[in-house]
Design goal:
This protein has 476 residues and is α/β, with parallel strands linked by helices. The protein has 21 helices and 14 strands. Helix content is 44%, strand content 10%. It is elongated and about 110 Å long. It starts with 5 loop residues before the first helix and ends in a 15-residue tail after the last helix. About 2% of the residues have low confidence.
């Protein structure tokens, strides 16, 4: 059915007569004058948003939604639109959506009310022609296979980078269709599926797609999905071959235990792992979970931030000690060097709140080294602080070649002295001489031989002051 001709009516329209409230009139005027960038349709959304009120009969006696859609379609400045409420009048909703289809400025569209399974068809022109749209949020929808299939086809023609589904009801087939489209479309980088109870079937689908070469996702949010150890194991099996994911959230999946976390080890230790941020809030980690994380991250070179609440995660001094060993294994210089120097954050910011105990405080002090330095510098600082006297014996196989390397190493430590606490130059010099002394004491014959060769070379090449001939060194 053909709608109203708003273009013709707008030539001499009086905004006061076409709206049901002063607030709505003001918003329409700002849209008409290209003076509005964020708009919320509904009440009580977010402080600071302009709210277009449609509840409590405010649309009665006026064509608020029809004109709202018209001016949204015309506005070239509107960047965000949040729809949290709509009246029950289908005719007004149709007029609104018809106007919305003409918009080409929106970058963020959030629909937090079920507008029916035909919403994709009703906004096909908007999705197809708005090349600025980068974020789409859908909440409280009942999505069957047909709707999911149509949405998947639509996504192929958009520039959407972030796709979020919150508290929706998916059929298994619909979920598979949506995830497949989201993970294989090269432009989609972020997928959030929160509070959708994906279960083992959903994790199987996600794991299969995340492990395929066609996957381009960089950010995956699976909070509030009742994922348990078995579901996580299935998901982790697919993640092992993933090389694109940089951020993962498993927040508020309360059934995950330390056993489930151990299934992430192959993924975290794989050469292809590019994960940089992992969120694990509102879960009971415990000492077993801390040990599982520490084991998985022992050889990881990508993860920089592991977020959770230190005061509400069940980790005791035993668990924090696992992280201490992960960050700085003091059993030998080599093990200290091979410790994890990539992590910058475990729990929360080192400056947020008091530590839970002295071991947690030690973890924080180790993380601060990485915060202000590179991984290489952090490794050198940990070695210097953890080993007052370097054990030179493992380096004896290098012979005299090791001494220049030792001197070079201490010179670099001097340049990073801010990382080494309040160590004075005298202490640096003492440790340097201690290292040389260990070498001389451990391999005296090699040192004497090297010294003798140096004298021989010097004497052989030194010319006589009287005749100018080069001297020849004669052994006694």
């Amino acid at each position: 059915m053909k709608g109203r001709d708003y273009d013709a009516l707008a030539r001499d329209v009086n905004l006061k007569k076409i709206t049901s409230s002063k607030r709505n009139k003001k918003i329409l005027r700002r849209l008409r004058d290209d003076d509005l960038d964020i708009l919320c349709i509904g009440e009580g959304h977010t402080i600071g948003y302009s709210e277009f009120i449609v509840r409590g009969g405010n649309c009665k006696g006026g064509d608020d939604l029809g004109w709202l859609g018209f001016y949204i379609g015309k506005c070239g400045m509107l960047e965000e639109l949040h729809i949290v409420d709509m009246p029950g009048d289908e005719a007004q909703i149709d007029e609104f959506l018809r106007g919305l289809n003409r918009n080409r400025s929106l970058q963020v569209l959030s629909i937090e009310i079920d507008l029916g399974d035909t919403i994709t068809e009703r906004l096909v022109d908007f999705f197809r022609h708005n090349m600025r749209l980068s974020q789409l949020y859908l909440q409280y929808f009942e999505i069957g296979y047909e709707s999911a299939h149509k949405l998947a086809l639509t996504l192929r023609e958009t520039c959407i980078k972030t796709l979020e589904f919150r508290e929706n009801e998916f059929s298994k087939e619909a979920f598979a269709e949506i995830v497949s489209a989201a993970s294989t479309q090269s432009q989609i980088e972020s997928l959030a599926i929160g509070s959708n109870n994906v279960g083992q079937f959903g994790c199987t689908t996600l794991g299969t797609l995340l492990g395929s070469r066609a996957c381009h996702l960089k950010d995956l949010d699976l909070r509030f999905n009742r994922i348990d150890d078995e579901s996580l194991r299935i998901l982790a099996a697919g993640l092992t071959n993933n090389a694109t994911l940089e951020k993962l959230s498993l927040t508020s999946n309360l059934s995950i235990t330390g056993e489930g976390l151990r299934s992430l080890t192959p993924f975290l230790q794989s050469e292809s792992c590019s994960l940089k941020v992992l969120f694990f809030y509102n879960n009971h980690i415990g000492d077993a979970g801390a040990a599982a994380f520490a084991h998985g991250l022992a050889k990881n070179k990508s993860l920089m931030q592991l977020w959770f609440d230190p005061s509400n995660c069940g980790i005791t001094s035993t668990g924090w000690q696992s992280f201490v060993t992960l960050l700085c294994d003091t059993s030998s210089v080599n093990n200290t060097y091979l410790s994890n120097h990539t992590l910058e954050l475990i729990g929360e910011s080192c400056d947020k709140g008091p530590p839970t105990d002295h071991v947690h405080d030690h973890v924080r002090s180790l993380l601060r080294m990485r915060k202000f330095a590179s991984s290489r510098e952090a490794a050198m600082s940990k070695i210097f602080q953890s080993h007052p006297d370097l054990d030179m014996e493992p380096l004896f196989v290098w012979g005299l070649r090791v001494l220049p390397l030792v001197f070079t190493w201490f010179e670099k430590v001097r340049s990073y002295r801010v990382l080494c606490g309040s160590v004075l130059e005298l202490e640096l010099r003492r440790r340097e001489l201690s290292a040389v002394y260990q070498f001389v004491r451990g391999m005296p014959l090699l040192v004497v031989e090297g010294f003798t060769k140096g004298i021989t070379s010097f004497v052989t090449q030194s010319p006589c002051r009287r005749c100018g001939r080069k001297r020849k060194f004669i052994d006694a």
